[in-house]
Amino acid sequence: MKKTCLLLTSLWVFLSCTPIHQPSLSAAPSSEGLTQDLLFHLLAGEMAGLQGDFMEAAKHYLKAAYLTRDPRIAQRATQIALFAGDREMALKAARRWAALAPEDPQAHQALALIELEQGHLKAALQGIEKYLSLSPLPPLKRFMSIAALLSKTPNRQRALQVMEEVVRRHPSPEAYLAYGSLALELGRREEAMKAADKALALHPDMLQALLLKAQVLSLEDKKKAIAFLQKAVREHPHAKELRQAYARLLIDAGAWEKALDQFEKLLEEHPDDADALLAAGLIALQLERLDQAEGFFLRLLKLGKSAAAAYFLGQIAENKKQ
């Protein structure tokens, strides 16, 4: 039940629903298309929303959606039904929205996820295919957005089943990466590793896939993960995310000297990276290298990060007095 509510909430947030007690004039159909019945249901829906009766508001907006060919009303009906937690009304509204806006990727994505939540796998896959073909996003963001919403479905097996079918239809490194990320989030480490390996087989230099594999390895064997990232950093010396991940693993392993070395190399290319300066300063403090730590925190102070920098500079000053 909690997962179902989470999915509905995620969809509602995804659709960027404005509060229904704030009627959006831009979402209303033109005056030429406003019939008496349509106007009645729109006003009744907004009045119900003002009174906190979201179920009644959803009913009126759904009726309004079938009285106009303006897809914005159907979108609004979908949003309010999701907010009210009525899956049946949300499904009807989303189907109407997708029918009125066949070229809108957002409509098909919303419909796909609502269909999936209802257990309609075939319809959900059709919606996902439509979304993937219409979305202007780069391939990786397209697939990752699907994986992100699938992760909120109450049925984990169903989510993976759908994503597996998506990958079968689109055997690209981006699709494998999205599948692997979903599998890892759902606790399926073995499947996540296989997906990362398949993505890397297609695209050996794909940084996100390298990071995914390192993340899975770190959950199983930190030494293997460190060795893997050490090799990856050597092969991709300018990849900031890889070096950050490598340094964090070294910290987890208590290899402070090696971790500091990685942050120093990172700062050679990114001298104003506040997170790296803070991490390097803290490691230097851990190693009792007060002068070196002071240098990092002074640089951090110049970047305007005065609160953190001033606190640690104060500590260093106290330690030097002692």
3D structure, described in words:
The structure is a single chain. This protein has 18 helices and no strands. It is 76% helix and 0% strand. The longest helix is centred in the last third of the chain and has 16 residues, at 306-321. It folds into three domains: 1-128, Alpha Horseshoe (Serine Threonine Protein Phosphatase 5, Tetratricopeptide repeat), CATH 1.25.40; 137-220, Tetratricopeptide repeat domain (Serine Threonine Protein Phosphatase 5, Tetratricopeptide repeat); 222-322, Serine Threonine Protein Phosphatase 5, Tetratricopeptide repeat (Alpha Horseshoe), CATH 1.25.40. It is mainly α.
Brief write-up:
It contains 18 helices and no strands. By secondary structure, the protein is an all-alpha fold.
Low-confidence stretches: 16-26
State the total count of DSSP E strands: 0
Mean pLDDT: 90
Distance between the termini: 58 Å
Order of helices and strands: HHHHHHHHHHHHHHHHHH
CATH architecture title of the largest domain: Alpha Horseshoe
Q: CATH homologous superfamily of the largest domain - what is it? A: Tetratricopeptide repeat domain
Tell me the major beta sheet: none
- Number of helical segments? 18
The first-level CATH class of the largest domain is given as Mainly Alpha
Structural class from helices and strands?
mainly alpha
Q: Beta-strand level of the residues, as a percent range? A: under 5%
Shape designation: elongated
Helix content: over 70%
Instruction: Return Rg in Å.
Output: 26 Å
Q: Any idea of the CATH topology of the largest domain?
A: Serine Threonine Protein Phosphatase 5, Tetratricopeptide repeat
